[in-house]
């Protein structure tokens, strides 16, 4: 998110001065690290939680799925522009064609998936979506799903060949390198410990060099807090009213990974299924092809873990330290009304290695333990916010908090996260810079052509955009 915002700012206002502070010794080591996320390029092509089933068996509502796909198209357009100007290198260094498949078992979910397909098949941004309940067809799409599977259970799948695998770590590093070449200052091993408002409305940041323990003070007219789960801590320290009442619910995760070439060559897709009852959306089980540093592997998971840290490289005191009088009621309300989530997390924690592997075998019946290793995935901090009726709600998604004067903005939340970074950061640009940058919308549209319009409402424009970005990014 920070790299995206900085790059957008440099392109619409080249003379702007940018300073980046990174706690770790290099960028993209937390949530953007390719082994800490699925790299799906969330476009709602296969993620069923973005289009939940209706309660009465009618056609499910596609609005959220369409909106997320629309947002991902902005990212594709922006990355295409960055490739054209040399800010991003060879597209294969960060994005690769990987079909997106939804796979379900049981008569009820087969019926749902069929109805979901009927809704999406005529949507411009879902052009080419295929449905099948024939095991032979599904096997041709993803052999590992079918080999060794008993034939006594109904199954179905949808496939969209235009799906992608994205290495967000590579995208992030390359954008920061572009910023450095354009006079932005990047400082690693630098932790922002505090920030206070100056009398003129600007901000004074207290920055500690973690290598030398020296402290520096930096003034800024605008601050973006893109610190993952730590964003809440810094927004609370800023004292802005807009951050009051917010909390975060941290959830850790683990993956199974294999680099066995005999398995990898049989699975060129990202396959998502239905979430367990009570599971957070980011815990939807999926079997993914990943391409990192040019090498392909398969990931399965995630398995949820309980951890009070807001970041993988955080502190066990992160959660208790975030408690404030203004967010106690939201925290308590969420704790009292999300027993299914708590039950799910407890169940995940009690799973043995054998039980975890059974979940993989539900996807891949022929899986063998010796081919797979267990990795710790990234830490996700779900948003808790005040609610007038319930007191507090747990929100699954991405949320930007911006002060009333637009001088500070911060990001909370998780999925769809990085996939929609361009859309989210364009919101920040609009809130905080529209008054100071003449013709901002026109400048943005040179970078992101469909900004301000909806591709989903125009089949010809949608097709043209998909074909144009596919050509530049060298994907289907």
TrEMBL record:
It catalyses: (S)-malate + a quinone = a quinol + oxaloacetate. Its cofactor is FAD. Keywords: FAD, Flavoprotein, Oxidoreductase, Tricarboxylic acid cycle. It holds the Pfam family Mqo. It comes from the Bacteria. Pathway: Carbohydrate metabolism; tricarboxylic acid cycle; oxaloacetate from (S)-malate (quinone route): step 1/1. One of its GO terms (molecular function) is (S)-2-hydroxyglutarate dehydrogenase activity. Gene3D superfamilies: D-Amino Acid Oxidase, subunit A, domain 2, FAD/NAD(P)-binding domain. InterPro entries: FAD/NAD-bd_sf, MQO. Its EC number is 1.1.5.4. Belongs to the MQO family. The keyword Oxidoreductase applies. One of its GO terms (biological process) is tricarboxylic acid cycle. It comes from Rhodoluna lacicola. This is Probable malate:quinone oxidoreductase. The gene is mqo. HAMAP family: MQO (MF_00212).
């Amino acid at each position: 998110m920070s790299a995206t915002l900085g790059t957008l700012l440099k392109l619409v206002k080249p003379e702007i001065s940018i300073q980046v502070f990174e706690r770790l010794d290099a960028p993209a080591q937390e949530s953007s690290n390719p082994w800490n996320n699925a790299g799906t390029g969330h476009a709602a092509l296969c993620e069923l939680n973005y289009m939940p089933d209706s309660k009465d068996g009618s056609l499910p509502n596609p609005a959220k799925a369409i909106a997320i796909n629309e947002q991902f198209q902005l990212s594709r357009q922006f990355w295409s522009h960055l490739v054209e100007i040399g800010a991003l290198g060879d597209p294969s260094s960060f994005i690769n064609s990987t079909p997106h498949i939804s796979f379900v078992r049981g008569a009820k979910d087969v019926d749902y998936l069929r109805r979901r397909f009927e809704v999406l098949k005529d949507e411009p941004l879902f052009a080419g979506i295929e449905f099948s309940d024939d095991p032979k067809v599904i096997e041709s799409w993803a052999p590992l799903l079918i080999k060794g599977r008993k034939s006594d259970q109904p199954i179905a799948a949808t496939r969209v060949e235009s799906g992608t695998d994205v290495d967000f770590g590579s995208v992030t590093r390359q954008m920061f390198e572009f910023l450095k070449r354009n006079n932005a200052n990047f400082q690693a091993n630098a932790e922002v410990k505090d920030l206070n408002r100056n009398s003129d409305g600007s901000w004074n940041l207290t920055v500690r060099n973690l290598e030398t323990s020296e402290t520096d003070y930096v003034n800024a007219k605008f601050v973006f807090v893109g610190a993952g789960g730590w964003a809440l801590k810094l927004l609370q320290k800023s004292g802005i009213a807009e951050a009051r009442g917010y909390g975060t619910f941290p959830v850790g995760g683990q993956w199974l990974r294999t680099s066995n070439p005999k398995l990898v060559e049989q699975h060129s897709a990202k396959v998502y299924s239905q979430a367990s009852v009570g599971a957070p959306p980011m815990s939807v089980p999926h079997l993914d092809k990943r391409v990192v540093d040019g090498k392909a592997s398969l990931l399965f998971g995630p398995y949820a873990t309980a951890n009070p840290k807001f970041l993988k490289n955080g502190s066990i005191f992160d959660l208790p330290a975030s408690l404030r009088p203004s967010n106690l009621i939201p925290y308590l309300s969420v704790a009292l009304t999300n027993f299914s989530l708590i039950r799910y997390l407890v169940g995940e924690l009690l799973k043995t290695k054998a039980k975890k592997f059974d979940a993989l075998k539900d996807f891949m019946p022929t899986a063998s333990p010796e081919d797979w290793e267990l990795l710790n995935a990234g830490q996700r901090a779900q948003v808790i916010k005040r609610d007038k009726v319930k007191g507090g709600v747990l929100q699954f998604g991405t949320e930007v908090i911006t002060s009333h004067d637009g001088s500070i903005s911060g990001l909370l939340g998780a999925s769809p996260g990085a996939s929609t970074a361009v859309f989210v950061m364009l919101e920040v640009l609009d809130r905080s810079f529209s008054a100071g940058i003449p013709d901002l919308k026109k400048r943005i549209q040179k970078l992101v052509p469909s900004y301000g319009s909806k591709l989903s409402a125009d089949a010809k424009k949608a097709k043209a955009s998909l074909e144009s970005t596919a050509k530049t990014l060298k994907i289907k």
